[in-house]
Write a structure and sequence with these properties.
By secondary structure, the protein is α+β, with helices and mostly antiparallel strands. The protein is built from 4 helices and 12 strands.
């Protein structure tokens, strides 16, 4: 008995074209999705790195007895051989300073970060502070620089404060700079690592030794993005 002839069923041309256009649409969608990712990949990586070093700056501290700036020649000779210390950018005496590593890395990444006294080696305080009633902390950077110099009589030093306000991400929305003319030295000045006050988010202190006399300078970040210091 003869078998009935086989009949091959072919997909309709409409179904074939629908599948082809679907695959093409998927490819085009993937390209459209990948293009901005590839295009902005470097920016995204840079933003993450900036955010990381921003957080490191806001959490950085050094031991309270660590000298971060000194114009004592013996200190310059002794500390100059240690990691992190560099000749300070000062046209006065022979000065040595310590550069906080997070600030160095962040400065290399951030064209908007302006260093006070032109060098990170002058920094004596680097940490987040929050003014009373403020919703977000701010990055407080305090540097030392000479305000005037007379080889016969004295050196006048000032503290230069910068307060950076941040968006939730990584970009400062503004920086407030203030010059505080505080130290008048006839012989020598040492400044130790500034310390955030653990009991007051707006307060901090910086140990110093001025012409052989030790003391502590206390300061505070105010709600108007200004820093005030107690009298010496």
């Amino acid at each position: 008995m003869d078998s009935p002839p086989l009949t091959l069923e072919y997909a309709s041309r409409g179904a074939f074209y629908r599948r082809r256009w679907f695959r093409l649409g998927v490819v085009l969608f993937a390209i459209a999705l990948a293009t901005p990712i590839i295009w902005y990949r470097q920016d995204a990586i840079l933003a993450v790195r900036k955010w990381y070093w921003q957080r490191q700056c806001m959490n950085w501290t050094a031991p309270a007895d660590q000298i971060l700036f000194s114009d004592v020649p013996a200190d310059a000779e002794r500390l100059g051989a240690l990691a992190g210390y560099h000749p300070a950018a000062m046209p006065v005496r022979l000065s040595i300073g310590y550069a906080p590593p997070p600030l160095l890395f962040r400065r290399r990444l951030s064209s908007y970060l302006v260093m006070f006294g032109s060098s990170p080696e002058n920094t004596v305080f680097l940490h987040a502070r929050r003014a009373g009633g403020a919703a977000k902390p701010q990055l407080l950077i305090i540097s030392v620089l000479p305000n005037s110099f007379d080889e016969v009589t004295y050196t006048r030093y000032a503290l230069y404060t910068g307060i950076e306000q941040f968006r939730p991400a990584t970009t400062p929305v503004g920086t407030v700079y203030t010059l505080h003319d505080l130290f008048v030295s006839r012989k020598s000045l040492r400044l130790y690592a500034g310390q955030p006050d653990p009991n007051d988010e707006s307060a901090f202190s910086i140990g110093y030794e001025l012409d052989g006399v030790k003391g502590t300078l206390k300061g505070r970040l105010n709600a108007n993005s200004q820093v005030t210091f107690d009298p010496l």
